[in-house]
Amino acid sequence: MNVSAATTRALEIRTDLLTRVAQAHDASHYLLRPEAVARAQDVPDVVAAFAEARHRGLSVTFRSGGTSLSGQASGAGLLVDTRTRFTRVEVLDDGARVRCQPGVTLRSVNGRLLRHGRRLGPDPASEIACTIGGVVANNSSGMACGTVDTAYRTIESMTLVLPSGTVLDTGAPDADERLRALEPALHRGLAELRDRVRASASMRATIAHQYSMKNTMGYGVNTFVDHDSPVKILEHLVVGSEGTLAFVADVTFRTVPLLPAASTTLLVFDALEHATDALATITGSGARAIELLDAASLRVAATDPLTDASMRAFAAATTQTALLVEYQATSPDGLEPFEEAARRVIGDLALATPAELTRDPAARGRLWRVRKGLYTAVAGARAPGSTALLEDLVVPVPDLTATVGDLGGLFERHGYDDAVTFGHAKDGNLHFMITPRLSDDGELDRFAAFTEDMVTLVLDRGGSLKAEHGTGRIMAPFVRRQFGDDLYAVMREVKALCDPTGLLNPGVLLTDDDEGHLAHLKLVPPVGEPAAGDLAEVVDRCVECGYCEPACPSRTVTTTPRQRIALLREMVTAAPSELAELERAYEYSAVDTCAVDSLCVTACPVGIDTGKVMKVRRAQRHGPVVQRAGRTAADHWGGAVTGLRGALGVVDRLPTPLVSAASKVGRAVLGADVVPLVGSDLPGPGPRRVASAGAVADASVVFFQSCMGSLFSPAEASPSPGGVGPAFLALCERAGITVAIPAGIAGLCCGTPWVSKGLTDGAAAMAERTFDALWAATDGGRLPVVSDASSCTHGLEGVGSHLAGEAREQFERLRVLDAVTFVRSAVLPALEASGRSPRAAGTTLGSLVLHPTCSSIHLGVVGDLEAVARAVADDVVLPLDAGCCGFAGDRGMLHPELTAAATRAEAAEVAAHARDHGTADAYASSNRTCEMGLSRATGQDYVHVVELLEAATRP
C-alpha cells in the first residue's frame, strides 16, 4: 500500500492522495480535502496529533462514523480517525451505566446492553453506523427519546483532551479542582460566564424557550443554568460542540430501560390540521413515538411494495396527513394499559381510513417502512448528479401545522417539487428532503434563497434551525440570528476559552462567513459506464451515508464501500496528474482488498451492492486471454481440482519455511493478487467428493457437495474425519433420508470463484453445466438442492443470473437450501422422533462459540445455523462483533492483512470469552474457508456445525 507516514508517539499520519481523497467524504453535502490523515490509537496519540497539527500549521477535525449531515466531520487540515481503535465498551452496574469510547457504534453498545434489558437514551435512525463520538458531539436524540433521553441529559462523565493537551476525567472526585489547577483561565472564564448568564433575565428567558424544544444550534448554553461547577459546565458544553472544544476519549452514560414490547398503528387524516390537532391527545395516551408524514410522503410510500398494502390508496394524496404512532413497554402485560388508552383515543378521531393497533412484528415492520422507507425511495429515485439533502428543524408544537404548510409553500416557490416532509411530531421536529443538483448553473442561488426563506420561517415561528443534526457548516452563519447578540457573545467566549488558537474544526458551529454554508459544497458527478459497467446507475444512487461501513471487512485496512464509490466519483473530475495516481492506488485499496461479500447491500438504504461493482472492475481489467483461461478452468474443473489437491498435498509435506519463501518470491514476481501467501495454517487436501448415492426416484434431496471440502482437509479438531460432506450424508442416513448426488459432481461448482474474480466467461460456462446437472438430478426441480457450504449455497442461488432463455426460467423452479436449513427442518425432527438427538442421547457439548458467515446472513439462515448449534451445545455464544472474516475464498491467502483486520474485533471478543469463561468445547461455522479464517484469527479450530451434530448423534 502506498502510505506516506510519519510517526510521533506511534501516531500514524498518512499523506498519500487516495487516503486524503477517500477520507474527505462523509454523509454531508460538504467536501473538504484534508492535508493529512492521522489514525489515533489512544489518548497520547490525540495529544501528539494536536502537537503535529500545530507544527504543520493545520487545523484538527475528528472523524469517526462520518454519518453527520451538516458538514461537521469534514476539515481541510489534519483529519484524525478515531473510529478504528477507540472501540472499547465497559458495561457497569448490571447495565445501569456504560462507559464507551468514541469509535464504537451505537448499535454495538446497545447490543452489549441488550442482555441487561437496557439501552442508550439517544435513538437516531443512523444507529447502525453512527458512533458514540458523534452521538456526543451532536447531542443526538431520535424518534422516541424526546428532550429527556438525549446525550446531554444522560451523560454522567467523560474523559476530555483539551487542545492544550490537558487530559481531564470529569467523573473524578477532584475533577473541578484539577481543572482549576491545570487550566485556571478556562475554569475562571466558565465561572464568570455562568454568573453573567444567570444575572441576565433576557438570556435566561431565551435559554428557557430555546431548550424547551430539541435544539442542537450553537453551544449548549443551557448548561450555564443547569450546572454549577465549571467542570460540569465544560462537560455539558462539549456535548453538542461538534469537535470544536475538545476530544472526548471516553464517555459514561446512564442507560434507560429497554422497551421490547411494542404496538403500532398508522392514523391517516384528511387534512394536516386534523393530524396536528390530535397530537396532544395521542401524546397524553402514552405514545412513545409519533411520526408525521405529509401528503407527499404518503404518495412516495404508496409506490413502495414493501409498505403495508393499505398505502396504495394514497398514490394521489393531496391533503392527507398520517401519524405513525407506537406504544412501548417492558413486557406484553405492561403494554395493555397503553393499548386500552390508545383505542379510546383512536375511537374518537375522525380518520380517513380505519386504524388498528398491531403487535405483529411483520405488520409493524410494514408500517414503519412507510416512515423509514422515505429516505430510500426519494434518495434512490433522484436524478443522477443530484444531492439528497436531508435537513431538520423544530418549532413549538402549536406552530407545527402552519410550519408544515409554509414549508410546502417554500418548496413550491423555489421549485423543489419532489420534497417530502416528515418528522417527530410530538416534539415539533420536522425533517425534509430536497434533491438539488448543486453543479447546475443557478442552483446555488436557488438553494441560497430557499435557505434564507426557511431560516426566516423557522425563527419567526420561535423555532430552532437545528433539532438533531447539529449546526455544522450549514447553519453556522445563522447562530447569532437565532440566539441574539448576548448569547452569541457567550458562545464566542466559550470557544476562545477552550480553544484559544482556533485549532479545532474551524468553520463549524460558529463562523464569521455569512455565506459559509454555500462554500465547499460536494458535487456528485455520475460515475459513468467505464467506471462501473451496467451498475453505473445503481452506483449513482449512493448518498455517502456510511451505513455500509461497519459491516465492511476492509474498513480498517484500506477502503470502505462509501469510499470506493466516492473515489469513483472523484476520478471522474480529477486532474490528469491526480487521476493516474488515484487509478494506480485504487486497484489495491478498492478492488483487490474488497472481499466482495456484499454485506454492504444489507445496510445500504438505497440498495447498492458495492461488492458487485468491484467484481465488474475486476472483469474490466481482464483481457481476452485471461477470460479464456477462466473458461478453460471451468471446462476442466474436475482436473483442476485434482491438480490443486495434489499441489496442496505436496505443500503439506514440505517444510513451511521453504513453502512460505517460495510463495513470497512468486508474489513478488507475479503479483500479490495472483500468488497466495502460504503459511503453516494452510490445510492439506480434503477427501474427494462422493460420486454417487441414492437414485433420483428414491431420493428426497439432492446433495451438492462444495469443492472447498475437497480442496481443503477438515480442521484438526474436526470430529468427522471426512469433513462436512460425509457428515451430512451420515446424518441423512440416520434420519432415513435418501440422498441423490448430481452426475459429474467432481467437475461442478457453484461458480463463486469465477464470479468473485470477474471471470465472466468461466462463470457462464460453469453455470450452464451446473444447471444441466441439477435439473436432471432434481427431476426437473421436484427435489430440493442442498449445499454443505453457505457460500456455495449463496453462489448456487445466483447461477440463474448467468443463464439465458428457457434455462433461466427453469432455474427459478429449483429450490436451493443450505445444509443448516435442511438439517434443522428435516434431519433434526427425524432424529428427535427416533430418540437419537444429542439431548436425548446426553451427548451435547457444554459450550460452543458460533460464527455466522456473511453468506448465512444473505441467505437468511442465521437462525437455522443457531438452531443446529443449540441442538449440539447447551450454551451457544454468538460474538457481538462477528462479521465477515474477509477470507472470501482466496482473499485471505492473497491478502492476509484483509482477514487480520476483518477479524480483529471478533477475535478479541472470542479471546475475552475464553479468558472469562474458559475455552469453549467447540468453535463452529458453516463454511470451510471461513473456518480457516477464524481459526487463523483466534487460534481455535473452527469446524462446520454439521460435523459436530454428526459426532453427537453417532451410534
Structure description:
This protein has 955 residues and is α/β, with parallel strands linked by helices. It has 41 helices and 26 strands. The strands form six sheets. A six-stranded antiparallel sheet has the order 13-15-14-17-18-16, with helices on both faces. A five-stranded mixed sheet has the order 1-2-3-5-4, sandwiched between helices. α1 crosses α21 and α29 packs parallel to α34. The protein is globular and about 90 Å long.
Compute the number of strand runs.
26
* Average pLDDT: 92
The residue fraction in helices comes out at 40-55%
Quickly give the structural class: alpha/beta
What proportion strand?
5-15%
Biggest sheet architecture: 6 strands, antiparallel
N-to-C CA distance: 54 Å
Unreliable stretches (pLDDT < 50, length at least 5) are 1-9
Chain-wise SSE layout:
Layout (H helix, E strand, L loop, with lengths): L4 E4 L2 E4 L2 H7 L12 E4 L3 H14 L3 E4 L14 E4 L7 E4 L4 E4 L5 H8 L4 E2 L12 H6 L13 H4 E7 L5 E3 L5 H8 L1 H16 L1 H10 L12 H4 L3 H9 L8 E8 L1 E2 L3 E9 L2 H6 L1 H6 L4 E5 L1 H8 L18 E9 L2 H16 L13 H21 L7 E6 L5 H14 L6 E5 L4 E6 L8 H18 L18 H20 L30 H4 L3 H4 L21 H13 L2 H17 L6 H5 L6 H11 L3 H12 L1 H17 L2 H15 L30 E4 L3 H4 L12 H11 L4 E2 L11 H6 L2 H18 L7 E3 L2 H8 L7 H7 L4 E3 H15 L4 H4 L3 E6 L3 H6 L2 H11 E5 L13 H4 L1 H22 L4 E4 L2 H11 L3 E3 H8 L3
Parallel strand pairs: 3-5, 4-5, 19-20, 19-21, 21-22, 23-24, 23-25, 25-26
Antiparallel strand pairs: 1-2, 2-3, 6-7, 7-11, 8-12, 9-10, 9-11, 13-15, 14-15, 14-17, 16-18, 17-18
